[in-house]
Inverse folding.
């Protein structure tokens, strides 16, 4: 038995996990805050748009290379721990076969690309990414609650990637150093992760049983279809902007999406820590309910002020971080601000609760509704509102996922919105917006204005909500 896998429901233990992952995410956010502005400035709007196009299409080939297998394996290992180690051997063989098929398909598609840069990136980055992904170990580290190890490796990977961006990507002609930095740092972190798993006592049985593959593929294909739906509702906007509005508009849209997604990562760390705990608690309705309510409180305390704050400060922060060339991205960022609430809701209800409970059909249904909403709204609104219409579709699709997942959840969990912390967060955020507006009337310095908003929100929310938050987490035993 791996020492870190012994069952424990103490708040201190999961608080330690949250601090570990939180510290890694915060440091990673600092690194991203440096590399992302450098990257978009040095590549320029159009080249950044072409790079984003490659990344989006490669994400769909990654689904072919990983048709839900990682998702299934992670859920099985999280729920059954060492008893599920036999799944890993079959998983690796099946993944290798899928990667070979995906790589061949990607090479065939790349041959039809007319732009030389995009074609080269597909061939050299896209194919290499598929094989590097085969070595991934982070899903096992999180499922086995080895969060401290995963956090350290994540930081190492991001640091190495940042070094490549800072020192090697100086202008658009250095674009190929970008995928080299991504893949090199990922490969090193993945291999070290497998070493850490072995040192912790996780040794999968080296056996291959094709007879079990059908049992693995049935739920896995549901998860793969859900991943495809997720990619459609989160990435279809990139393709529609590229096809309808061109590379320059795509550069603005991709920068805006990346901007709000970085902020969303502040919230998602809570879900990544609590997913394994939810998988263990799924057999107890009362235990699951307590964890979900505590998670909703945490998400509300973070995502609601982020949404209001992004809307209120985008005109200061976006040009300051991304440069004057991205001033036109201010409005897209503002229209995407509700994503900072919608995406955590979707991640909690669909990607965490339904997933942790193994309800793969409901998980797929919520993703399908989101994908259909994204495509229909994007195709309709791009003709009416242009770039801003695609931004609206991007946000509404996330809300559609959240609403569908909510309706498909067990009835005993559907009172999760009856939470005092939500009201406290909304009230505190409104006061924060007023304070930001007043501060901005005296100063245009982004850091000063943001600091005033954070101070006001933090003070009001602590005064009004600390007892409620402590009570909810005190109930998680």
């Amino acid at each position: 038995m791996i020492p870190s896998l012994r069952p424990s429901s103490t708040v201190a233990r999961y608080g330690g996990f949250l601090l570990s992952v939180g510290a890694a995410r915060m440091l990673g956010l600092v690194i991203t805050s440096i590399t992302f502005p450098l990257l978009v400035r040095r590549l320029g709007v159009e080249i950044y748009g072409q790079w984003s196009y490659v990344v989006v299409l490669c994400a769909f080939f990654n689904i072919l290379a990983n048709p839900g297998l990682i998702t299934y394996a992670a859920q099985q290992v999280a729920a059954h721990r060492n008893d599920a180690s036999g799944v890993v051997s079959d998983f690796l063989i099946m993944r290798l076969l899928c990667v070979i098929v995906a790589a061949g398909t990607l090479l065939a598609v790349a041959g039809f690309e007319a732009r030389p840069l995009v074609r080269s990136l597909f061939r050299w980055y896209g194919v290499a990414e598929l094989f590097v992904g085969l070595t991934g170990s982070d899903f096992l580290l999180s499922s086995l609650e080895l969060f401290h190890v995963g956090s350290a490796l994540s930081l190492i990977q991001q640091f190495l990637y940042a070094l490549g961006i800072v020192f090697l990507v100086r202008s658009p002609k250095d674009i190929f150093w970008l995928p080299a930095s991504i893949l090199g740092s990922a490969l090193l972190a993945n291999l070290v992760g497998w070493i850490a798993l072995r040192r912790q006592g996780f040794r999968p049985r080296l056996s291959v049983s094709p007879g079990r593959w059908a049992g693995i593929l049935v739920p896995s294909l549901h998860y793969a279809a859900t991943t495809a739906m997720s990619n459609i509702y989160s990435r279809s906007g990139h393709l529609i902007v590229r096809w309808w509005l061109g590379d320059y508009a795509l550069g603005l849209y991709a920068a805006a999406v990346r901007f709000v997604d970085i902020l969303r990562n502040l919230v998602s760390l809570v879900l990544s820590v609590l997913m394994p705990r939810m998988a263990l608690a799924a057999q107890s309705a009362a235990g699951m309910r307590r964890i979900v309510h505590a998670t909703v409180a945490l998400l509300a305390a973070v995502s609601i002020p982020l949404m209001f704050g992004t809307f209120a400060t985008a005109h200061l922060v976006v040009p300051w971080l991304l440069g004057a060339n991205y001033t036109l991205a201010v409005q897209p960022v503002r229209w995407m601000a509700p994503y900072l609430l919608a995406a955590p809701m979707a991640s909690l209800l669909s990607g965490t609760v339904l997933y942790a409970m193994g309800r793969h059909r409901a998980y797929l249904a919520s993703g399908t509704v989101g994908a259909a909403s994204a495509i229909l709204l994007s195709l309709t609104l791009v003709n009416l509102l242009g770039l801003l219409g695609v931004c609206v579709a991007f946000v509404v699709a996330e809300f559609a996922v959240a609403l569908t997942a909510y309706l498909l959840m067990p009835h005993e969990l559907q009172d999760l919105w009856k939470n005092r912390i939500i009201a406290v967060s909304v009230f505190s955020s409104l006061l924060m917006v007023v304070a930001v507006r007043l501060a901005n009337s005296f100063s245009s310095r982004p850091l000063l204005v943001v600091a005033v908003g954070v101070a006001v929100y933090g003070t009001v929310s602590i005064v009004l909500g600390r007892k409620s938050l402590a009570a909810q987490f005190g109930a998680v035993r």
In short: The mean pLDDT is 84. Residues 8-208 form one domain.
